[in-house]
Amino acid sequence: MAGWTEKDIPDQRGRVAVVTGSNSGIGYAAARELARRGARVVLACRSEARGTEAGDRMATEVPGAEVEFARLDLGDLTSVRQFAAVFPYDRLDLLVNNAGVMALPYGTTADGFETQFGVNHLGHFALTGLLLPVLLATPGARVVTVASMMHSMANIDIRDLNSERGYRRWTAYARSKTANLLFTHELARRLAAHGSDVVAAAAHPGYAATNLQTQGPRMAGRKVSERFMEVGNRFFAQSAEAGALPTLYAATAPDVSPDSFTGPLWAMWRGSPGPSWRAPWTLNDTAGERLWAASEKLTGVAYGQLKA
Questions:
Q1: Per-residue pLDDT tens for 148-167?
Q2: Which of 274, 129, 292, 124 is nearest to 204 (CA)?
Q3: Is 173 a residue of the active site?
């Protein structure tokens, strides 16, 4: 695993991939490399303008790339349902739950959920559940959910998933990333009980230079914090391409196991992808089951084929 790069990605010809939030950052880099290896890639993005531009840019960088834009707003369950309803393929080899927001000022999604929990977890929970039939019908399919090393800052509070009792932007972000890992844990458990060969795994990019870091300070009008994040991206972070390697490894490497967590090897910060430490609360069966039940209730998306 040490020294693994995008050049080690196996041939992806004949495979269909959906990458959420693939108009920029690690999502764009991951989608591009999958396309470079021959996959047909659906760029699932909120903005049609940015998604279309990303597809055009990708086609220039990878001549012959099979990429297409499809609108998906993870902060709006109606949009998630529409995306799944018109998904045009009878196979889905790879679903990369990559899109996310980080440390935003308090806000709510179209459905009234706290934004970070709603977008980072509930939107992807609903999307995966709605695409589950085609995933189960595709031999060897994978679901890769992008979490963060920041999950270690906080466990979820099952009694206050939407931060109604008090909001701290970094705590809410950490809880949403813990939710990503608990979702992966419970999904992997249910897939195994179902006898499916679909692999649910997770990854994190370490510290990668993307627009995720500056989005929150910019929205809050905190110029000093925004500048601080820009300096960090420039001098300390690895590139988005390097940050995408753990996702690509989890998505394509032959030895990836269910419920694994892949990240940069050097202090969970940067470097080649490898097994990453995760907080013990992300492996708690009871917490996973409770979050799953709450997520089904909140989204209205039931995983009927994967009962506990």
A1: 999 999 999 999 999 999 99
A2: 274
A3: yes
